[in-house]
Structures are given as C-alpha cells and as structure tokens.
Specification:
InterPro entries: Cro/C1-type_HTH (IPR001387), Lambda_DNA-bd_dom_sf (IPR010982), TransReg_Diox_bact_type (IPR050807). The structure is a single chain. The protein is elongated and about 50 Å long. Helix 2 (about 20-30) crosses helix 3 (about 35-40). With about 110 residues, it is mostly helical. The chain starts with a helix and ends with a helix. The chain has helices at about 5-15, 20-30, 35-40, 50-55, 60-65, 75-85, 90-105. About 10% of the residues are buried.
C-alpha cells in the first residue's frame, strides 16, 4: 500500500472514530468534500496546511497519524502478536494479556 493510500485510510478511520461524516470534517478543515474524499481514497495528497488542520481537528499528533504498522495484512499482525507473546516471560503479563483479549472478544 502506498503512502497516500495508507494516510487516507488512517484519516478515514480517525474521522469515523470521531463520529464525523466526510461533509462535517471537510467543513471543519475548510476544504471541499470531494477533496477529502480524494485524500481518504488515496487519490490526492493533502497540503501541509490541511495536514495541520487535520491534526488539530482530530486532536492527534503527527506521529499518531503516520503510524501505519497496524494497517498491515491481518495474517502478518497475528504472526507478530504470536511471536511477541512467546517472548514474554512474566506470568502476570501473560494473564493480563489473556484478560484483555477475552474482554475484547466478548464485547
């Protein structure tokens, strides 16, 4: 996935998590809805000015916006999780992770 697609996917997820429609976010950013749509679809790249507005409106840091590791294919994520779990030596940490996973699954 290229950087425009990754960034667009991330902005779309953040927008949805914050409960904004494309129209609402576009208005807050002072850009056209079709421009935001193009950004979210990875067809257009945002300007530095729009980037600053996105960070402010969505209340996120640039490092959070540009963190894409979790967007990798599901199989890769599962393999990495399993690998990381095998490296944990603390029984208490394993129990906490187990509880967390169970809580997420039963939501």
């Amino acid at each position: 996935m290229n950087i425009k697609k990754q960034l667009g996917t991330k902005i779309k997820r953040l927008r949805q998590n914050r409960g904004f429609t494309q129209e609402q976010l576009a208005e807050k950013l002072d850009i056209a809805t079709r421009t935001l749509c193009g950004i979210e679809n990875g067809e257009n790249f945002l300007t530095a000015e729009t980037l600053e507005k996105i960070l402010r409106v969505l209340n996120i840091s640039s490092s959070e916006l540009f963190a894409f590791d979790h967007l990798r294919p599901q199989e890769e994520l599962v393999e990495e999780i399993i690998h990381d779990l095998r490296d944990i030596k603390s029984r208490e940490k394993i129990e906490n992770i187990y509880k967390l996973i169970k809580a997420i699954i039963t939501e």
